[in-house]
Structures are given as structure tokens and as C-alpha cells.
Design a protein that fits this description.
Blueprint: E1 4-8, H1 13-26, E2 32-35, H2 41-45, E3 49-53, H3 70-73, E4 82-88, H4 100-111, E5 115-117, E6 120-121, E7 133-134, E8 137-138, E9 140-143, H5 145-148, H6 152-166
Parallel strand pairs: 1-2, 1-3, 3-4, 4-5, 4-9
Antiparallel strand pairs: 6-8, 7-8
Length: 168
């Protein structure tokens, strides 16, 4: 049986809310909720399907809690593992690097052989640039609490429906 995890920082309120909504939408208690700030290689590699919550900090950077795990991640063989990314950003406050964290993490995962799933449309978003873009799609689910809070629930539901197919 394939094991699934949602990995995110338990100390980030908005990302934690989205992670809980994703788990609820899957309607599956066997999805492990894992704190990104305490992740170890062995646990990380024990999952076949991983959903990662990746915010964008400052001017398009990964949150600093990933700093300790990234060197290990950059050495892992992730062949055969599927990853879906969701990220939080502010397209009006930071339009020049909206969702860059998702793009950075996606690039790292792919360079290690991972398969990315859960790409979403950019329709309905207004931003200048993003490292999370691939063929006119985001490399995952884009969440903008500040400017599009009313759209979150439906976007999460649609994305989880998509992941149920792509994770199969």
C-alpha cells in the first residue's frame, strides 16, 4: 500500500490551515501530517506520495526552516515518488516573485528524479513573474489568502480531486 504524507511547517498558520483542508478533502485519515521543521531522511523516504506546503518568503526564497533538510534532499534518489506542491503567496504584494518557493522546491525535487503532479491553471491570478510556472501552469496549487480568500475552498477541493487521479 502506498503511503502518503502532507509535509509543511506546523508553525505556519495559513499553510497549516490549507494542509488540514487538503487532508479533509482526501477524506483519508491514513495521510500522515509531518512537520517540515522536524523531518528526517528516513521518514521522508518512507512515503511514496508527498504533498508539500511551500510558502514563499521575502523576495522569492524558501522559508528558512527548509535550510537544514535541503542538503539531504539534494542527495536523495526520488525516482518513483510522486510529489504535489501547494504554496502560499501574495500576488499583489509580491507580484514579481509570486509562488517562487513552489518553483524552487519543484526544481530540486525534479533534479532528484521525482515526478511532479498537481499542476494548476494560472487563470484568475494577476502577477508579474513566478518561478513556479511551467508551460503556462503553476507547478502546484497556488493559494493567495490576502487577495483571494473566498476562492480557497473550491481550489483545494478541485486540486484534491485532480490529485486522487494523478496519485493513482
Amino acid at each position: 500500500m502506498k503511503k502518503t504524507a502532507i509535509i509543511y511547517s506546523f508553525n505556519t498558520k495559513k499553510t497549516s490551515k490549507i494542509a488540514a483542508q487538503i487532508q479533509e478533502a482526501f477524506n483519508n485519515d491514513s495521510i500522515a501530517m509531518v512537520n517540515a521543521e522536524e523531518i528526517a531522511e528516513e521518514l521522508f523516504l518512507s512515503f511514496d506520495r508527498i504533498i508539500m506546503g511551500v510558502a514563499t518568503w521575502f523576495d522569492g526564497e524558501l522559508p528558512n526552516f527548509w535550510d537544514e533538510f535541503l542538503p539531504a534532499l539534494e542527495e536523495m534518489d526520488l525516482t518513483g515518488k510522486k510529489f504535489a506542491l501547494f504554496g502560499l503567496g501574495d500576488q499583489k504584494g509580491y507580484p514579481e516573485n509570486f509562488l517562487d518557493g513552489v518553483g524552487i522546491m519543484g526544481e530540486i525535487l525534479e533534479s532528484q528524479g521525482a515526478t511532479l503532479v498537481g499542476f494548476t491553471s494560472t487563470e484568475g491570478y494577476e502577477f508579474e513573474s513566478s518561478r513556479a510556472l511551467r508551460n503556462d501552469q503553476f507547478m502546484g496549487l497556488a493559494i493567495d489568502y490576502e487577495n483571494q480568500g473566498s476562492m480557497i475552498e473550491q481550489r483545494v477541493a478541485n486540486w484534491v480531486d485532480q490529485l486522487k487521479i494523478e496519485f493513482a
